[in-house]
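Justification of resources, computational component.

The compute hours requested in this renewal are based largely on the per-chain cost of generating structure records like the one below. Each record pairs the submitted sequence with a full structure-token output. That output is archived, and it is also reused by downstream analysis tasks.
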Amino acid sequence: MSTPHIESQIGEIAPKVLLPGDPLRAKYIAEHYLENAVCINQIRGMLGYTGTYKGEKVTVFATGMGMPSMGIYAYELCKFYGAKEFIRIGTCGAKKDFLHLRDLILANESYTLSSYPYLFFDDKETTFASSETLNQKIRTVADKKNCLLHEGRIGTSDVFDVYVDKKIYLKKFEKDVLAFEMEAAALFAIGKHLGVQTACLLTVVDSVHQNESITALEREQSLDAMIQLALDAIVL
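The structure output for this chain reads:
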């Protein structure tokens, strides 16, 4: 079996899935963390791998950028391949001044102005929650690792906010958020409507309060604290 976007066969996708946006980050995780990793998707360059982590089967599958792309891959992995638990591992831009580069955020909900939930699920809500069961696993692992984890509401935007007038942009959002990214609300909406577990861990890579950001290569290869936390949580 395959879909228009995934060439994998039934049984090649694990029930537990990490979802980075960047295909090269998926490759990095497979090469550095998974045992016996096998590439199970290359369509459109959206790399997916399945291997084992601490003896348990795990898939890491890239989703690309934006809610429509996340929506396609998360929906197909769930609907056609039977995946049950998803943790998005991504990057974000901080809105709060107490957040610093490489800080970790656990999103307990995401606020969005996107039409994706309405068009796909006829859902007019603007805020979508992650799964408390999966969030608690992440908190448990973070506590064991003495890992500082900021938790709260994030914003999921259809616009890369680095390119827009911040004052005009931020006025459009009614709810306060810790940071902005571009995929989580779609994943949480899928979790809500398809009954699967979803969570989102983010690493801060830029901030409206700082004139610093990390490079594209660092975004690909220096997010190990988040990656290890997600892997340990999903096999807990």
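The chain is about 35% helix and 30% strand. Strands lie at 16-20, 35-41, 48-53, 56-61, 85-94, 104-112, 127-129, 149-156, 179-181, 197-207.
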